[in-house]
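Budget justification, computational time. The allocation requested in the original proposal was used primarily to generate C-alpha cells for proteins on the priority list. As evidence of use, we reproduce two of the resulting records. The first is shown immediately below.
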Amino acid sequence: MPRVPPIDPTDASPDVHTVFAEIRETFGMVPNLFRTQAHVPALLRANWEKVKAVMMGGVLSRKVKEAIAVLVSKDNACPYCVAAHTAALRAVGVPEDEVARILDDPDGAEFSPREKALIRLARQANTDPHRIPEALFEAARAAGASDAEIVEALGVMEVFVAFNKFLDALQVDVDF
C-alpha cells in the first residue's frame, strides 16, 4: 500500500497533464513514480527533464543505461526500479536470456570492455562512493571511456539512487 497515492491522470492539473502527456508518449503509460511525484508539479517536471536528458540523450547506449539503472536498483533492493528497468531492457530489444545474464553476471553479458568498465564504476559509486579504487577509473579510461561517458554513467547511477530512495520510502506500487 503506497504511503502517498499516485495522482490520477484525469485529475491532474494542466501543467501536470502536459508532463504526463510527454511521459505517456515516451513510455506508453504514466508510471506510478511520476504519478506520485505529480503531487509537487515542479518536482515532476524537474525529474522528467532529468530522465529525458540522462536516459534519452547522451552518448551511451540505452542498453548500457538501462543496465546501470537495473543493477543500481538491484544493489539498492528497489523492487519498483528493478521491475521497470528489466522491462525497459526488454523494450529496447534485449532478449530475455541476456536480461537474466545482466542481472546475474553483468561481466558475462554482451557489453564491450568499455561498457563493462563503466557499469562496474557506476555500481561501485552507488555502493561505496568514498572508496572507489582509482583502478576503476583507470580501467574505464584504458578501455576507451571518455570523461563524458564516465560522467554520464555516474549520472544514470545518480538518477536511480534518488528514484530508489523515493520509491522505497513511499512504498510506491510496481506498475510494470
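The second record produced under the same allocation is shown here.
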Amino acid sequence: MQDGDGHRARIGLIFMASSVVMEAEMWAMAPQGVSVHTTRIKLPKVTVEGIQAMMDAPELEQAARLLASAPLDVLCFGGTSASFLHGTAYDKALIARMKDWAPGLAINTASTASLAGLAAVGAGPVVLATPYVDEVHARAIRFLEENGHKVLASDNLRIDEDQALAEVPLEKVFDMVCEMDHPEAEAVFISCTNFRTAGVIDALEKELGKPVVSAVQSSFWHALRLAGVEDDCPGYGQLFRQPLPGAVA
C-alpha cells in the first residue's frame, strides 16, 4: 500500500499556525511519491499590521532552519499576502533570506509561484479574487500590475481573521469568480493560501473557458517543477500541464 513516502520529492512548507487549507490541498493534488512537510508560524491577524508582525518575528527564520534540517528538495513559503506585501523586491529579498537559512534547497514563495503560474499559462490581464481586507487586496492588485498583469476586475471578502478564511465554502468561491469575470481577462488569479480553491479550479475553467491560477495550486505546481517532477495533476487546472518558465523560476 502507498504510505505517503516522498521518494520522488519532499516539499517543505512554512505555513501559518492558524491555517489549514494549503497542506490539505497540496496532499490532495500530490502525485504518488511526493510528500509535504510543514513548520508553522503565528499570524496575529490578516491585516497589513498583523502580516508585518509575522514577517518580523524570529519564528520565520527558525521555521526555515528547522525544515532545512530534513532531507527536503524544495522549501516553500506559503504566505501570498506576506510575500507580496511590499512588492516584488520584497518577495525577492525574502527568497534570498530563505536561501541563507536553508542552503542547498530550491526556494519558492506563494507570490513568486503565482507569477510563474500566470506566465506558464500565457496570461496577460487577469481578474483577481481574494478574501482579504481592502488594504491587503489593494496591495495584491499593485503586485500583479507591477509584474505586467493588469487587473480588469476584482472582488474581495474583507476577512481579517485567519480561521474565517478557511471557512468560506467552495460554492461561494465559485460564484464570486463567475460574477466578476471579465471578457478581456486572459486568466483568473485567486489569492490566499488559507482560501479553498483546489476543488473548484477545474469547474471554473470549464465554466469560464480560461485558465485559473490559485496561490496554493501554483505554489505546489512550482515546487513540483523545481523538484524535477513534471507530472500532470488531473482535475486541478491546466497549469499542471505546463513546464516551468525559466524566466520566472
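A brief technical remark on that second record: The beta strands are 9-16, 34-41, 74-77, 106-109, 126-130, 151-156, 187-190, 212-214.
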